[in-house]
Amino acid sequence: MANVVEALPPIEEQFNPNSQAYLENPIPQCLALARRAPIVWYEPWQAWIVTRMPDILECWHKEPLSSDFYDWEFAPTRPPEDQWSNFERAMIGHSLLSDPEHHRLIRKVVSPAFSRNVVDAIQAKIEPEVKRLFDTLGKPEIFDYKEMISNHIPFISITRMVGIPEKYWSDIKHVITTFTETWNPTISDQRRETARQNCNKAIDIIKEVIEERRRAPEQDDFLSTLLNIEKDNEKFVEGDIITLILALIGAGADTTLVAQQWAVYALLKNDRGQIAKALASPDTFSNAFSEINRWGVSSKMGFARYAPSAMQFMGQQLRKGVMVLMMPHLKDHDPDYYDNPGDFDVERVFSPDVMFGYGPRYCIGAALAKRQLFLTMTELFNRFPNVELAEEPERDIEDHNAIVFKRLLLKTNCL
Ligand code: HEM
């Protein structure tokens, strides 16, 4: 590493995702990092960063590194099994994130629950809720899209999809936004511990819901599907169901919150002709969504992996437990990767499209996320065809994982 970076300024002077400069415009920092080397040591996070797509794809595909947060050198010690709380039981015992063999089994048995038919059925449940949200909004002159719409969508979708009855909603709601913090390596131990406690409370609620569902007749939701899968597969047990529901909440809430904001911002900030092209059908929107994500560059840290043992990796000696971050977003405005990267073009061709990852851990909720966003954007632009940004939104430095806005004021122009 010393040979590669000798002539360059220290990395932290070129790249700091927690800085105001990154918040305002991450592109120069992303390009500077990607140009340094294929793998770069980042002292502030005690992590290696993999900067280029061929290596990231290989890593996603072959999984030489661990996805288990507890393999991180600075993770809290794995407690002995007789001291596990529900959280450890869900995150260690049956984790989607850990043992690759068990991971593959879970992906295989749950894949029917994410088929196109199921997504269609879930859409039918979410659509009236989205309409109700817009009905409640009415026709204001100006409104904050975050407060009135986007903050509610992930919660509505996931509780409806999983089948968590409304009487539990107020108790479980706060955990949706903190769950991913339980394994975020870049935040304080105290913040992670609070998230862990929240998570334990949520697990208690999920267990209650499961018990209730076991007693009640089958319903048309994800939980009922999982309980059926449990009946037919002795290796798929209640812990897996809890882990999976937590994973859906965790992986599906933060991501869609961010995506909602950037979708609105990108569509309103660019040539309005793009809106109709993007919303022509769920398929055109699927591509548009990747362009929104590329153009917006909202990611701060990418995807974490951990060295399962001391090992050689991309020409570097990794110590056991060291974090390795894959940062596919570094390419997003690189002119060597995309033609005219500053242009927003919802028909841009992505090959491969890695917005939802790649390989064995490809996002399980990709179809649902796209459909959810398509529904909401369609509703927004149908109700307010002349909607525009009321101001340039201020970015929020507090978010632990992504560039987001403090508020997103929209002017409806509908009066
Ligand atoms: C805009 C929305 C979303 C984006 C951009 C996104 C992106 C991703 C990416 C890139 C990965 C791979 C992560 C890695 O390799 O470490 C992933 C995994 C995952 N996503 Fe999503 N996701 C989104 C929404 C959702 C939703 C709505 C759900 C659930 C309903 C979901 C569930 C999951 C799960 C469970 C995994 C882990 C899969 C595994 O390890 O096998 N995601 N997502």
Describe the structure.
The chain has 415 residues and is α+β, with helices and mostly antiparallel strands. The protein has one domain (2-411): Cytochrome p450 (Orthogonal Bundle), CATH 1.10.630. Helix content is 50%, strand content 8%. The chain contains 17 helices and 11 strands. The chain has helices at 2-5, 11-14, 20-24, 27-36, 53-62, 86-93, 100-110, 116-137, 145-150, 153-162, 169-178, 189-215, 222-232, 238-269, 273-278, 282-296, 366-383, and strands spanning 39-42, 47-50, 142-144, 303-306, 311-313, 316-318, 323-326, 388-389, 395-396, 404-405, 409-411. A 4-stranded mixed beta sheet has the order 1-2-7-4. A 3-stranded antiparallel beta sheet has the order 3-11-8. Strands 5-6 form a two-stranded antiparallel sheet. Strand 5 and strand 6 (316-318) form a beta hairpin. The protein is globular and about 65 Å long. Protoporphyrin IX containing FE binds next to helix 14 and helix 17.
